[in-house]
Amino acid sequence: MSKTALVILHEGFEEMEAIAPIDILRRGEVSVTVASLTKETLVVGRNQIKVDADVDFDQAMLHEYDVIVLPGGPGVYKTLRSDMRVRKLIQRQIEVGRRVAAICAAPLTLLDAGLLENVQYTSHFSSTEELPEREAGKSVVSDGLITTSQGAGTATAFALTVLSQLTDEQTAQEVASSICLSAPQ
């Protein structure tokens, strides 16, 4: 059975942090659903790149996923953190033993959901005030069911890490090789 992923897009999402996981996971034969937090499926990123989501968030919540991916960007502060549906979904995801992956400022949503207690994590440097325990020296950190990363520049390593967790290291290495990049160690 194919592994599944949900990537949640919010207005002002960081495009590289969404597209890299979508692309890498699909190359690794993970079934990826892209959901918009709004009723509109066309979502505008921080750099005005428009992405057409597969479904709206309410439709996405009707299914279960092996991983939920939260891209960062300025929209984290405006919409993602304040959406109680997201908070409840990621709490439930962890409760039932499935993965959550957050990059850039999106780990703040994990903080709000109470999921970072006794967990090692990293995030974008702009979130240091609220996430003072972030591991600033690591581009990707995995601890239990939670994977975090720092930002757009670490998006490919982040995506390959999530892929290896869902499938295996060989699949991640094959995808990395196909895009002329070594898989993260």
What is the overall pLDDT average?
96
| Assigned CATH architecture | 3-Layer(aba) Sandwich
Name the poorly predicted regions: none
Termini gap: 27 Å
CATH H-tier superfamily: Class I glutamine amidotransferase (GATase) domain
Question: Structural class of the helices, strands and pairings?
Answer: alpha/beta
Helix content: 25-40%
CATH C-level class is: Alpha Beta
Remind me, CATH topology? Rossmann fold
The assembly state of the depicted protein chains is single chain
Cα radius of gyration in angstroms: 15 Å
- Rough shape? globular
Biggest sheet character: 7 strands, mixed
What percentage of amino acids are in beta strands? 15-25%
Number of domains: 1
Tally of DSSP β-strands: 9
Q: Taking strands numbered 1, 2, ... along the chain, how are they ordered across the largest sheet?
A: 5-2-1-6-7-9-8
**Order of SSEs, N→C?**
EHEEEEHEHHEHEEHH
Count of DSSP-assigned helices? 7
